[in-house]
Every structure is written in structure tokens, then in C-alpha cells.
Amino acid sequence: MIVSESLYRIPPVFDSFPNLIAAESTRHGGVSSAPFASLNVGINTTDTPENVAENRRRLFSSLQVDPQQVASSYQVHDDRILTVTQPGRFEGYDALITNQPNHFLTVTVADCTPILIYDAGQQAVAAIHAGWRGTVARLVQKTVKALQEQFGTQPADCFAYVGTCIDQDSFEVGPEVAGQFDEVHKRFDADRQKFLIDLKAANADQLMRAGIPAPQIGISPYSTVLHHQDYFSFRAENGNTGRMLALIGLRSSH
């Protein structure tokens, strides 16, 4: 349970890097009314644009991030990766990577899994949006490969965070979706006659398969469904809800 109603939480796995800005927002501290109460930062929701703009302003201000230095994409649950060379709004990408300081990468979520990666060796970062489709497409592993190809990243130098998303017990799927997941990441609930998928474990395993050491991977202890007083949940709120934002970037040291 989150004790304070803060606008964001900082993943502890990144605590020892003073120039790294990494955070995931909560639903607290904004101006939106129900069902978007209160810090809805989702551009593609039916909340008023003025509310969303003010919420994003508050979040970026609290992180001391200039909105003009933010990169985001309209996400499509695919496996395309964008190498960000300038901030802005893009379309069709579910993962963003950069080695440019003062370029802050963002993904929006409300049950899907946000994954943030910091390459401490080459000073590069990645932000990934992985729902079940992105997870099955192994977007996390593809993003680590893109970091290697673009920036010479060594996975052993990377630190990563698997963020707040839907928990396994809440994520019911049918056999057509469950069949695309490894056995270790699903279980069948006989009472509900549904499969239950563990998105956090599936994406953490991809990070490890890509070569990132397990002690350098943090996993959020929170669930968008079980803790939806602190986080938006698309499923728990029947699709009419706000979005959180996960952000990562390096502040230049000069």
C-alpha cells in the first residue's frame, strides 16, 4: 500500500544513479474528476485535454523535467522500437530507446506492463510498454537487442524495472491467449475455467534471458487491480479510466 498520496514512485533499483530520472506515476495529485481521478496523464482518453495537460505539467514539474524534452508514442501493442534522437510525440511504437541526455522517454499504462532499462555503461535508456501482445512478441528482449546494436550496450551493465501492472490472479484469459505463453508464466484456475497470466514474471524472465543479471532487476510489488485506489486499472474500471506514465532519462551533468 502506498502510504503517501504522491504523484509518482521511484523504482529502488535506480536509487544509486543521481543523474538518472526514473519514475512511474500514481493516480494522485491531479485535477481530473471521476472516473479519471485524479492524475490522468493519458492523452488518448475522454478526459478533457485541459485536465490531462495540467496533470502532465504537474507530474513533469515534480520530476523537474521540461515537457519539451519528453518523447512519447501512440502505442499499438506491437513490437516496433524507436531510436529517439529528438523529443516529441510519435506514433506506432511500443518501445523507445535513446543515448541522448535530457531526452526523457515515456510510456503510458493502465494494466499493461511498463519496463524501464538503464545501461550504466553506455549511458542509454529504454522505456517499454508490454501488454500481453508485446510480451508474447518478446518486445523486452528485442529492445535489449536494439540497445546492443544501436549503442553497444552490454546487458551485464544494465539495470531494469518491471513496473506496476495487472497481477496474475486478476489477469484472466482464454486458451487462445494462454497458449502463447510459456507454461511457467500461466496457471489454470478450475473454478473460473480461465488461465491466469503473470506478466511481471514473463517480462522479468525476458530481461534475464537477454543477459541482465537478476540482482539488477527490480519488480514492482503493486498491482493496478489490487491497488487501484493508487493506480488506474483498465480492467477493474471497465475500460473507462485514466492512465499512468512511466518515465526514464538521463539529466546532463553540466
Automatic annotation (TrEMBL):
Residue stretches spanning the membrane: none
Coiled-coil segments on the chain, per record: none
Pfam families tied to this protein: Cu-oxidase_4 (PF02578)
Catalytic activity of the protein: S-methyl-5'-thioadenosine + phosphate = 5-(methylsulfanyl)-alpha-D-ribose 1-phosphate + adenine; inosine + phosphate = alpha-D-ribose 1-phosphate + hypoxanthine; adenosine + H2O + H(+) = inosine + NH4(+); adenosine + phosphate = alpha-D-ribose 1-phosphate + adenine
Domain of life: Bacteria
Keyword tags: Hydrolase, Metal-binding, Transferase, Zinc
MF term (GO), any: copper ion binding
Cell inner membrane as UniProt keyword: no
Gene3D superfamilies assigned to the protein according to its UniProt record, in alphabetical order: CNF1/YfiH-like putative cysteine hydrolases (3.60.140.10)
Keyword NAD attached: no
Similarity field: Belongs to the purine nucleoside phosphorylase YfiH/LACC1 family.
Protein name, per record: Purine nucleoside phosphorylase
